[in-house]
Amino acid sequence: MGGVDETVLTEDGVRLWAIRSGEGVPVVFCHGGPGLWDFLGDLAELLADRAAVHRWDQRGCGRSQRCGPYSVARSVADLEAVRRHFGLDRMALLGHSYGSHLALQYALDHPERVSSLVYLSGTGIDSRDTWRSTYQQNLRANLGTHLERWEALDGRERTEAEGREWCVLQCSADYADRERALELSEAAATPWFGVNLDCNATVNTDVKRTLGRPELRAACEKLDLPVLIVHGAEDIRPDWALDSLEQALPRVSRTLLDGAGHLPWVERPEAFRSVVGDFLAGHAAGA
After folding, report:
1. Mean pLDDT value across residues 135-144
2. Of the candidates 99, 120, 105, 97, which has an alpha carbon nearest to the alpha carbon of residue 46?
3. Residue 89 has what pLDDT?
4. Which residues of 160-192 are buried (b: 16+ CB within 10 A; e: fewer)?
5. How far apart are CA 283 and CA 227, in angstroms?
6. Within 13 Å, how many C-alpha atoms sit on residue 100's CB side?
7. Rounded to whole angstroms, how far apart are CA atoms 280 and 206?
8. CA 274 to CA 85: how far, in whole Å?
9. Which domains does the chain have, with CATH numbers?
10. 55 neighbors 44 (Cβ within 8 angstroms)
11. Separation CA 122–CA 270 (nearest Å)
């Protein structure tokens, strides 16, 4: 796929990796984690003839400079630096997993810069306590014969190789196709850039402080932007957790993709391309 690696310089001097590819509606992706890197290249390729996709690694992650500080507000400012770097007046946002929370927060802070929002495989705006136990049960069930090894790695410090093994095992639970889950998880972890555990812990703590607060719901109720919620029917994060967000947003549609887990574009590519591509085209800046 086309595109040339670029360096975005934030106002506090941190260098972020970024890349642009495709043609069409300008959209910026926000990858999940926190602490991971952008592994959404296949998603960008799926939309290559419908969207000009701008991808980036969040600070401290992947190919970006590994330094803090880490917070949601800091990531929102970094996303603004990405927008300015590419000269985008308005843009669509697509956030996956934790990235959906980041994209939503950016839209709340800068609604004039956002034409539409795809909230992909997120978990809504209620407290994590409402769905976390269900997620943990589903995770363990999907790990199946790999559960014992995952638990052994999860409970101690890990070497770099063990860290990759732990991540591959955990992420294998995110696929509906249990026969190919480990293979698909290995592919997503290749190339391997490592997990920034400091970023993960710090940003997750920051997110937990805001979820479930009435101020967040009130802000969502005022968000006058088209939002598409997309979720895999077999995601181990329960679909009902999204009710809180859907009920708060004034302009929202919601799609549940059967036969898909946490990465629905991998397991249902054509259905995903149709739903998301049509949404982005229908709500392009100025359309």
Report:
1. 98
2. 120
3. 96
4. eeebbbbbbbbbbbbbbeeeebeebbeebbeeb
5. 10
6. 19
7. 30
8. 29
9. 6-131+195-282 (3.40.50.1820)
10. yes
11. 21
